[in-house]
Amino acid sequence: MTQFQTIDIDDLQVGMYVIEFVRQDGDLAIKNSGFIHSAATIELLNKNGVKRIIIDPSRSKSKTEKEGTTLETVNASAKVTKPSGNDVSKALRLHSRGVSLQKLIHESIKKNRPFSATYAAEFTDLVVDFIESNPTAMGCATRIRKKDSYLLEHSLNVSVHLIQLAQHMKLSASDVQDVGLAGFLIDVGKIRIPDEILFKPGKVTKKEMEVIKGHVKLGEEYLQQQGYPEKIIKIVGQHHERLDGSGYPKKLSGDEICQFGRMIAIADVYDAVTADRPYRAGMTHQQALKILLSESQTRLDTTLVQHFIKCNGIFPEGTLVELSNGHVAMVFKENKDAPLRPVVKPFYSIKSKHYLAVKEIDLAKSESIKIVRQVKDSQLSIDFHKVFHEKMA
Ligand SMILES: [Fe+2]
To answer: φ and ψ at 358, to 5 degrees?
Structure first.
């Protein structure tokens, strides 16, 4: 069975079928996968800083054949017209590329098609580099969630949280890369769970729950088939294990769970409980930290939970807060010297239920306005992902 290939831009030729860009300096995004029908397209990609590309060799044609869908690209930066003042827009673009890559992995698994281990590793490299130069913007992107994209966004978000945590703990570059990659692949086994069980709207039966729990083993098997390193498979295999032995699938306890297995469990719980699901609203950042703290008495590693809390802070970028004047704002930038008074962007009035013209307020310089509490957009019946892209990006 033919496998997708990653190639350098210098090896791209007319007739090849392009699936996705893996590495680039610019902001070009693929609108439609398709054939390279002319040398001019290659030149355009080159000019826009595209470096590495995923192609489908099974669909490549001779240079003279001109039939089939032509590759269509779009300048992603054109979609985000207003400068955001920090790297959040760049982070959102990288995040959406991660979601595209997750989609490709999901499709290849559904079609039982091999998918090279290098794509996810190369993408993880990019995220590691990005977070190194801007530790908070990618975390912000994880909090501007798209409705109904949980399965695609969750693994990517877990990866981001793990890279942030590993860098905060000053782990070695290869350890940061390993936990990031394992996070990106955390629930890959879920794609092999039948949709009618995985997406069942009501309560699942005991038997169905056992099938869902099987995603860990299915994930390990898939990663083995694809040639991922053993250390990555081990971390993924331990993401539902708990220190008191109450986890699954092996009911490991204490030292049987490696440090990275303990870290991935924390990031997994945090992202899962903060996400809105069809059967329950997501928790605020603060509520999620409380859950982690309570679990750290028995099931999660106490020291690592403390690191996670310190790494994320009280009001991380992208969280929503209610202000004392009745406005809802997004935390835009942390104030290191005044952690309770970040820079915020109010965008909605709770009292009058209407949107506001967005401006920036530095709460450290504004004595009259304070943060009252953290809120979730679902509590206010707002689609913040939509609002962010329409008003704040
Ligand atoms: Fe899982």
So the answer is: -75, 130
